[in-house]
Write a structure and sequence with these properties.
By secondary structure, the protein is mainly α. The protein has ten helices and no strands. The structure holds fe (iii) ion (FE). The site of fe (iii) ion has 4 residues, from loops.
Amino acid sequence: MAFESLTRDNIVDFLADIFARRGGESYMGEPVSMSEHMLQTAALAERAGAPNSLVAASLLHDIGHYTSEFPEESLEQGQDNYHETAGADVLTTFFPKSVHEPIKLHVAAKRYLCATKPEYFNRLSPASVNSLNVQGGPMSAGEAAAFEAHEYYRDALRLRVWDDEGKIAGAPTPTFDHYRPLLTGLLVGAER
Ligand code: FE
């Protein structure tokens, strides 16, 4: 399937297509594939009774790893290599803040939790400790205070915990299609 431009009518198919074609790739040294990881994260959110927007954020939180898949115009807002902002930028056009803000904050959430909850750091997988160092290490007190000023920081923290837990080899989950109605229901009227 070729997506020359993204619209409200094809964005969910576009995301499904990425899951289908690229989801088998490994999740940075973890024992699950990318799609298994994102589906597990969404399933944990759903099981916890999270609102639809946060289930969607959980499902799509690592979509920024696939920016090479996005039509160029959808990345015009600033192409960077930070997967959390790249993913959120694309979703900004089609989904509300309650979806893309927690995604944008999910890496910062790890740095926040490492600074404020020592037991959290001890639970991180080796691959996650590795990326923490690349991402700037635990937050300073000032950074943590600034983080708490974000409207969606609590959602980002919840997403972060499911993100960390969604790495279980072979854990059963619903498929992407299970989440289609939920995603479609969240689309904002940004006709392009
Ligand atoms: Fe993740």
